[in-house]
């Protein structure tokens, strides 16, 4: 009925199965939902803290204030939930557009200096790394999965936006910008291994550090909001499917679900 998310997908898939197959699909759906809830618990704190810690690159004396600032930002984010996010939601699009454009530009500048890094497109490098490093390679693979964590939030609210508005910016802007930025960080580390302390922020020139930290913090808060909205949508679907006890669902918008 226009909904997205792993529970909606598992409900559709179970219709084509019977007996044990339905129970297995339901179990897989619940496991996937649990992963999103877990992601929603840790990602806001980690992402916002990582953004705020960028201040230490520009001004090392600000390092002790990173955690208090992060706590303040997150408390404010959760405090506005009861009032809805329609008013602040109007700035989400322009901020995220600027964020991904900045990611792409920062990465492209560094890739232009070291185009050798584009060899990372060859999957043989990944296979060789896993073959030569054994269990340590699997641990690194866990970090690689962080690249796509939160992807469930992209389509958990598909009923709000539809498939096309989600797919178009993902393939045209988001995915390319992320890949180019990761390549740029790789190129920077290839040139200067000491940049490993903060490769993302060290991609930027000194004059752009403070604006980049502000932009990164805003983007992290918006991503956290997306996870909160995704958890709301998922919980509502779980209630409708009878997977969890009935809960009171309060919609804070007069025109949209959520």
The ordered string of helix (H) and strand (E) elements is HHHHHHHHHHH
- Proportion in helices: 55-70%
Strand count, sense and barrel status of the largest sheet are: none
**Structural class per helix/strand content?**
mainly alpha
> How would you sum up the global shape?
globular
Let me know the number of strands. 0
Features:
mainly alpha
Structure in words:
- The protein is mainly alpha-helical.
- The chain has one domain (6-240).
- Helix content is 69%, strand content 0%.
- The protein has eleven helices and no strands.
- The chain is globular, with a radius of gyration of 20 Å.
- The mean pLDDT is 83.
Layout: helices, strands, pairs:
Layout: H1 6-14, H2 20-52, H3 55-58, H4 66-79, H5 86-89, H6 92-113, H7 123-145, H8 152-156, H9 158-161, H10 163-191, H11 209-240
Would you kindly provide a brief summary of this structure?
The chain has helices spanning 6-14, 20-52, 55-58, 66-79, 86-89, 92-113, 123-145, 152-156, 158-161, 163-191, 209-240.
